[in-house]
Design goal:
With 310 residues, the chain is an alpha/beta fold. It contains 11 helices and 10 strands. The chain starts with 14 loop residues before the first strand and ends in a 6-residue tail after the last helix.
């Protein structure tokens, strides 16, 4: 085979950041396979997971673990091996290392020691989800995983509530419903795409409003999730004759007041999701800088409206 200009020498002592499939094992580049075969050592977030990939492609290279619980100790060991002349490939469970995983710490430590990491590009879930979402692909911002709870989580949603660009988040199945509700509470009604099990047999792309998504994903779900959310100020008005988003059992599905100010529409959306008048009013008053009592009275009026039975 003719030589490839710029191709790395076999087993050159470097840290290789190797992207691996996010689901379908066929989604790996020839260069990635070549690199994994030639390095002295492969550092993997979960060795059991990576061993399946290596076995599939008949790759027999020493495998060690590198994850958030041993990153400090193991990271130093890996860099010492590179300094002594060995080559190391870093892989994550799925996709590109350094994106919402401990790989970023190893990359930063390598740079601090004067080592130049080499990127071996390939799949990443956030880009795959973005391009099939149906939402604007530029500009966008990747927010990673929202904090699990507490004040840090509240600040996360508040801080990002006014970003006009498309937002991309990762989330676990057990927290999806909670995150969708927090998004609706802090960001208001927007379009969202929820990508589940990308490139796998049960791949699914849900597209709709946040309210739609909350109802759709009420049952237990499994798999890796990527959320692509419309930026602030970009929601499209409902078309004439278009049905409103489905609401939980017990709420009137025909409620619509297109002549109301934007905050009233968002207030109604929160009530549809089962929030109390007090909770919904508090969220809307904060977001739109309105008197809390005024919004609370509007919430009560909405509940009394003969077209909105809560």
């Amino acid at each position: 085979m003719p030589s490839n200009p710029g191709h790395e020498k076999d087993k050159e002592a470097k840290l290789y950041i190797v992207s691996t499939p996010i689901g379908n094992l066929a989604d790996i580049t020839l260069r990635a396979l070549d690199t994994l075969r030639k390095v002295d050592l492969i550092a993997a977030e979960d060795t059991r997971h990576t061993r399946k990939l290596l076995s599939y492609y008949d790759i027999h290279v020493r495998l060690v673990s590198y994850h958030e619980h041993n990153a400090r100790l193991r990271g130093g060991e890996l860099l010492d091996k590179i300094a002594s002349g060995q080559s190391v490939a870093l892989v994550t469970d799925a996709g590109t290392p350094g994106v919402s995983d401990p790989g970023q710490f190893l990359i930063e430590a390598a740079l601090q020691r004067g080592m130049e990491p080499v990127a071996i590009p390939g799949p990443t879930a956030l880009i795959s989800a973005l391009v099939v979402s149906g939402l604007s692909t530029q500009p966008f911002v990747f927010l990673g995983f929202p904090p699990a709870k507490g004040a840090e989580r509240r600040r996360f949603f508040e801080k990002n509530s006014r970003l006009a660009m498309t937002l991309i988040l990762y989330e676990s199945p057990r927290r999806l419903t909670k995150t969708l509700k927090d998004m609706l509470l802090s960001w208001g009604e927007r379009r969202v795409a929820v990508a589940r099990e990308l490139t796998k047999i049960h791949e699914q792309i849900f597209r709709g409003s946040i309210s739609d998504a909350i109802e759709y994903f009420m049952a237990d779900i499994r798999g890796e999730l990527t959320l692509v959310v419309e930026g602030a100020g970009h929601s499209k008005p409902r078309l004439d004759g278009e049905s409103p988003a489905p609401c939980p059992e017990g709420l009137n599905r025909d409620f619509s007041n297109r002549e109301s100010p934007a905050w009233r529409d968002e207030l109604a959306a929160l009530l549809r999701q089962g929030l109390s008048s007090k909770e919904a009013a508090s969220a809307i008053a904060t977001r739109f800088n309105l008197p809390r009592r005024t919004v609370y009275q509007a919430a009560l009026a909405l509940k009394r409206d003969e077209g909105f039975h809560c």
